[in-house]
Amino acid sequence: MDIIMLSRNISTYLNHDLSYLNEDGTEDNDIYFSGDIVQQSTNLAPEIINAERERYSEKKHQHLESLERLTTKLYSNCRRLERSSSNGRDYLPILRGELKKFRKLQRNWMMTL
Q1: How far apart are CA 12 and CA 75, in angstroms?
Q2: What pTM value is reported for the model?
Q3: pLDDT tens-digit profile of 33-64?
Q4: What is the mean predicted confidence (pLDDT) over 80-88?
Q5: Which of 40, 43, 70, 84 could, after both became Cys, cross-link 30 (CB 3.0–4.6 A)?
Q6: What Rg, from alpha-carbon coordinates, does the chain have?
Q7: DSSP characters for the chain?
Q8: Maximum CA pair distance of the chain?
Q9: How far is CA 73 from CA 10, 12, 27, 96, in A?
């Protein structure tokens, strides 16, 4: 839940900085990554629930792989946003720290399934 809240707040903050057009009239491409972190973090919880509820190990592993992909994408999008030209990028290490904690918990949880 902390990851979802952090990503939403960071995305809102980044959107204000990145929503302006560049001098040549183009938009900043990093604004899309701010939406991606919200979508990916929101999709974490349903994948966890689906993996917990699944009875068959093959389908359970599919949910676990999906969860691993989401976590990796979320982490890489945070890295991309840290290179953006926004003041909000200073908050992204906090989200990445929470993701590192989540990954450790995720590995332990995956062993119990």
Answers
A1: 18
A2: 0.81
A3: 888 999 999 999 999 999 889 888 888 889 99
A4: 83
A5: 84
A6: 16
A7: -HHHHHHHHHHHHHHHHHSSBPTTSPBPTHHHHHHHHHHHHHTHHHHHHHHHH--SHHHHHHHHHHHHHHHHHHHHHHHHHHTSSSGGGGGHHHHHHHHHHHHHHHHHHHHH-
A8: 55
A9: 16, 19, 23, 12
**What gap in Å lies between CA 29 and CA 23, rounded to an integer?**
14
Neighbours of 77 (CB within 10 A): 23
Output the CA torsion 91→96→101→106 (10° steps): 140
Let me know the angle formed at the C-alpha of 12 by 73 and 81, rounded to the nearest 5 degrees. Answer: 40
- Write down the pLDDT at residue 24: 80
Looking at residue 7, its amino acid is S
